[in-house]
Amino acid sequence: MKSEEILVRDIKQNRNGALAVLYDRYAPIFLSISLRYCGNRQDAEDVLHDGFIKIIKHLHSFKFSSSGSFEGWMKRIIINTALNFLRDRNKESRFADVNQFRDGITDPDDEQDPWKELDDQITKEQIMGMICDMPLGYRTVFNLYVFEAYSHREIAEKLQVSENTSKSQLSKARIFLRKKINEVVVNQKVGS
User: Fold this and answer.
1) DSSP conformational letter for 143
2) CA 75 from centroid of its chain's CA atoms
3) pLDDT digit string (tens) for 151-184?
4) What secondary structure does DSSP assign to 47-88, as a single string?
């Protein structure tokens, strides 16, 4: 039996410490996801809390189908909790892994590569700040497309917008981020 299966079994059997193990193992991952959508730690912690309550409440219905399916199942709950939070409270999002961010900002139709010479010029914290500064619509679509690998059709269904709106919001998000990156690069050159 794999460790996830043992953990789920222990939680279902109300074994001492099992919920703490679940939280300790997955909270950092899910807090990062929540931060990406919410834009500030307080709201992200609320989403994380609400998401864990939903996970525990619905754990009895979870069935293992493959390796990693438990984490994926929980991740979907956290993302949906964050999207519901955004819908209800009109909040913002952030967090970025630079490698995922590169793919998300690069437009395949654009011949200009915004990542040339940027490897040592921009930090994760700067990228997080840029994503946090994005308007809500840009951020939400950007997160779903870049980090969650949703298609525009899936984003349109999830956000109840048209596919063209999703594509437009992603395009605007890329333009916004290119502008912010250029500002950082110019400021660094001026400061040198």
Assistant:
1) I
2) 10
3) 999 999 988 889 999 999 999 999 998 898 888 8
4) HHHHHHHHHHHHGGG----STTHHHHHHHHHHHHHHHHHHHH
Question: What is residue 23's three-state secondary structure?
Answer: helix
Q: Which residue has the tokens 């395009």?
A: 171
Whether the CB-CB separation of 128 and 93 falls below 8 Å is answered with no
Low-confidence ranges of the chain (pLDDT < 70): 1-2, 66-68, 89-120, 190-192
C-alpha distance from residue 28 to each of 17, 23, 25, 109 (Å) = 18, 9, 7, 36
The full set of domains in the chain, from first to last, is 3-89 (1.10.1740.10), 98-191 (1.10.10)
Which structure tokens are listed for 125? Answer: 């914290």
In terms of C-beta distances under 8 Å and separation of at least 24 residues, what long-range contacts does 38-41 make, across chains too? Answer: 38/82, 38/85, 38/86, 38/91, 38/92, 38/93, 38/94, 39/91, 39/92, 39/93, 39/94, 39/132, 39/139, 40/91, 40/92, 40/132
What is this structure's pTM? 0.58
pLDDT digits (tens, 9 = 90+) for 31-51: 999 988 888 889 999 999 999
Return the DSSP state at 40. S
Alpha carbons 104 and 101: distance in angstroms, whole number = 5
